[in-house]
Amino acid sequence: MNDSVGRQLTGWDAATWRTASGDPTLRSTVVALALFDSVPEWDRLRQRLERLTRLVPALRMKPLHGAVGLSAPRLGPDPDFDIDVHVRRYRLAGRGSWADVLQEARRMSLTDFDHDRALWEACLVEGLPGKRAALLLKLHHSIADGQATILIGMSLFEFTPEGNPMEPEVPLVPEPDVVSAPEVTMANLGDNFKRGAELVKGMATLVAGLAIGTVSDPVATWTKALDVAASVGRFTALPDGSMSPVMTGRGTTYHFAAFDLPFDGLRAVAKAHNRNVNDAFMAAVGAGLDRYHARHGQPVDELRFNVPISLRGDPGDRSGQAANAVTIARFLLPIAGLTVGERMEIAHEQVAQWRAEPALRLADPLADVSWLVPVPILAQAAKTSDVTTSNVPGPPIPLYLAGARMVGVYPLVATIGAAVNVTMITYDGSAFVGLSADDRAVPDLEALVADLRAGFAEVTGSPVGSWDPLSPPRKGDGTPKARAVRQ
After folding, report:
1. What is the pLDDT of residues 385-430, one digit of tens each?
2. pTM, rounded to two decimals
């Protein structure tokens, strides 16, 4: 097969593409905001990004559509790939502020990709106080989940200001051919036929296994089969609506906020309760949302959480470096009137319960089946989620890029139907929290962020970090302001 026709998006990648293209409220962008102590050298930065596209082939690929349009697009090499189309720089007018940076990230996130180009872009923002700079890296969620974004970043960043002493040789980029829609269609038909044959083979194996098991051990065989069927039912059930009486609206715009805190605090409280960091993180988010609903005089017992569960490293994982290897657990999490220990225990039990679901490992086949479900129905189901939380472990050591040291990295993820998305990345001893909130669901973003910060302080027992990484702390400011921006 001609390599220029690339590979077809399947499973979660295809489902993410389809829903993001079919409904603006489900637009799936990931923006990583990296803050530097100085301005990276532009020529070196551009060379690093060019090198990155050679190490991660998906960054040089664009969507290819067939003549019929009934299949997911393919990702194939862009014969007209131009690094300068995807990379730019500019200086903020006047005295640049953190609010300006968040606003630039918001505009970037809310703007859809050019579907005739590779699905990423990067922007170096200069003109920040203290001669600092920020790099905004935007990726389409169909080509990378949170962990894949970290892996991509590790191929971009360096371990010293002077660069890495030893790096793998950069592979050559083959000259791709221009492919036609009929060629893409034929490639799709071939792939669809192979998947169909694999499905038939799998069904035959399943039926044979049930037949043999019915004879040898009917009780165990059919108990397991019914357990799997019930699990698929729980996994694919469509909720009636969101649980929050406050965060009810959904629209096509959202705003970002961000804050950080010492990672040791989260790690210590998790260890003290014999739980993991994700349990402490979810407990903090739950505590913050409990406060937010109490602020509005409408306390709620539980909210519907979306929690991505990584399948990276599982048997059968074929994600590679740039792809999704994740499925979504959706469950009700109690938030009202709980102690820190109770919050962590409940979060731990819920995630563990979903990790044990047999249907979890059927995520990609179930996502393929979702191609038969109209996008409006999928969008309505997505909008029943109150909050999405994601915790992504990052590098524990300082990193550099083109001579500048990265002093912060903030994950800014689209809401994708939920009222709120809270994502955390750990880096060099700190936990960096990025927040997106649907404008219709959360008209008072500053209040929500204040309550989330208080939730993290409640769980860790210590204050959250400074309110603005671009300004020195203000004396006597015992209640730091959130780095939130609202037009």
Report:
1. 999 999 999 999 999 999 999 999 999 999 999 999 999 999 999 9
2. 0.89
Residue 209 lies inside a defined structural domain of this protein = no
* DSSP string over 407-441: EEEEEEE--TTSSEEEEEEEETTEEEEEEEEETTT
Q: Of 140, 158, 181, which residue constitutes the final position of a domain?
A: 181
Please state, as a whole number, how many other Cβ atoms lie within 10 Å of the Cβ of residue 422.
28
Range of the domain at 157: 3-181
Q: Report if residue 478 sits inside a domain.
A: yes
Report the CATH number at residue 298: 3.30.559
In a domain? residue 468: yes
From CA 258, how far away is CA 181, in angstroms rounded? Answer: 43
CB 259 within 8 A of CB 455: no
Residue 366: exposed, middle, or buried by beta-carbon count in 10 A (0-12, 13-18, 19+)? middle
- Domains of the chain: total: 2
Q: Whats the size of the chain, residue-wise?
A: 487
**In which region does residue 226 sit, left (phi positive, over 0), alpha (psi from -120 to 50) or beta (all else)?**
alpha
- Contact assessment for residue 33 and residue 106, using Cβ atoms and an 8 Å cutoff: no
**Does the residue 207 lie in any domain?**
no
Distance, in Å, from the CA atom of 147 to the CA atom of 312, rounded to the nearest integer, reads 9
116, 151, 181: which is the final residue of a domain?
A: 181
Q: Which amino acid is at 300?
A: V
pLDDT tens-digit readout, 118-170: 999 999 999 999 999 999 999 988 777 666 777 788 889 999 999 888 887 78
